[in-house]
Specification:
Elements: H1 26-40, H2 42-48, H3 59-71, H4 77-86, H5 88-94, H6 106-117, H7 120-134, E1 142-151, E2 159-161, E3 200-202, E4 209-211, E5 220-230, E6 236-243, H8 248-257, E7 266-270, H9 277-285, E8 288-292, H10 306-309, H11 312-320, H12 324-333, H13 345-371
Parallel strand pairs: 1-7, 7-8
Antiparallel strand pairs: 1-5, 2-3, 4-5, 5-6
Length: about 375
């Protein structure tokens, strides 16, 4: 018999929200990982909030909401709040009742500086890494390092001669454009003009730098994100953001290598960009064997020789190091790091480290599920 649509929709329900979420749903496993970590961070949250005044939105809820933004590829906080209004799954994960009033967008902007000052992203990242170590998912001997270009939230039009007071209505090297009737979006002609980071800067994001990752690629206003990964399961053990320049990848790798766990000998896989005498020398002083790809085209030849490349472990490192591209790929497709809506190194670094921590949570969830 044909069913009929019931036009009278029930206005009330006494079914618990938790019963709507399937036991096998991936967010259940994620909640089981995240909730204990946030509970451990409670003293740190206490330290960044005043003891008196009107109660704020719980920082645990803010972080879980941002975690959803990373996991479900929500491009902005406005879109995140829109989903929180109607999505029972998201409300359940964040800890909001079905009839709870959803926050205003300014909640994130007002609390962001507090979370930045409290270095919450680094502390969250460290707790996630501790969880991975407790599950015996992290190797303490073999690692890989690499960097990725992060496009800044600024356009080429904002890249102007240093000292320019603001967005100009004039072409950088010519006369006024009579056809330009929009001062907020002027027509700009860069043809024939030499533009470098020494002479120009972005008026939108002065800390970004004009940079291209490889020969033949397009120069973009960018930052560089760096990550060190352990080779057993692809867990990221260190992450940071720096200015985009030609030596930043090696400089960041040397800094991260100093904080690798243990005082024993370790290996560090990397591509041929890291095959320099300075990098190899620093690694050797810190009990790290540089398993970098040989760059035989470099003037003077490769900085490593057969004493390193003859070992079977070198070949393994060269295969494993490519897994770090999966980290960057996830951060730019699922995650928000292709072109984040943030300006300045400090905010970009916060968002990058938090996003990498979410990636690690996904790895931990998947690996522990496979084990069971």
């Amino acid at each position: 018999m044909r069913g009929r649509t019931n036009q009278q929709i029930s206005m009330f329900s006494v079914i618990p929200v938790d019963s709507w979420i399937e036991e096998s749903h991936p967010l259940r496993a994620m909640a089981n990982l995240v909730n204990p970590i946030l509970e451990e961070l409670s003293p740190d949250f206490d330290a960044i909030y005043a003891g008196t005044g009107r109660p704020s939105i719980p920082p645990e809820q803010l972080l879980k909401a941002l975690l959803l933004q990373v996991l479900y590829t929500l491009r902005s906080e406005g879109q995140l709040l829109e989903h929180l209004r109607f999505n029972l799954l998201y409300r359940w994960f964040v800890g909001l009742a079905p009839d709870s009033r959803i926050w205003d967008e300014t909640v994130f902007s007002k609390n962001r500086e507090r979370l930045l000052n409290g270095d919450v992203a680094s502390k969250f990242f460290a707790k996630v890494l501790e969880k991975a170590q407790a599950e015996n998912l992290v190797s303490n001997q073999h690692f890989s390092v690499d960097g990725t270009q992060i496009q800044a939230w600024a356009s080429h039009k904002s890249f102007q001669v240093k000292g320019t007071p603001g967005t100009s209505d004039k072409k950088p090297g010519g006369d006024d454009d009579d056809d330009n009737n929009d001062p907020g979006n002027p027509t700009v002609n860069f043809h024939g003009e030499k533009r470098t980071n020494e002479t120009h800067e972005s008026k939108t994001d002065p800390e970004s730098r004009l940079y291209k990752k490889s020969k033949g690629s397009e120069s973009k206003l960018s930052y560089l994100g760096h990550a060190t990964m352990e080779n057993r399961n692809g867990i990221v053990v260190s992450a940071r953001v720096t200015e985009a320049n030609g030596t930043a990848e090696r400089d960041a790798a040397m800094g991260m290598a100093l904080h690798l766990p243990g005082s024993h000998q370790k290996t560090l896989g990397a591509d041929k960009n890291y095959d320099t005498k300075d990098f190899v020398a620093v690694m050797g002083k810190n009990k790290v064997t540089p398993h970098v790809a040989q760059n035989i085209e470099r003037r003077g030849g490769s900085a490593i020789d057969a004493r390193t490349t003859r070992h079977a472990g070198y070949e393994v490192s060269q295969r494993k190091r490519k897994l770090i591209e999966e980290v960057f790929g996830w951060l730019k497709t699922v995650g928000p790091m292709r072109r984040p809506h943030f300006r300045g190194t400090r905010r970009m670094a916060w968002w990058f480290k938090f996003s990498v921590a979410v990636y690690n949570l996904v790895r931990i969830r998947n690996l522990t599920a496979q084990a069971t």
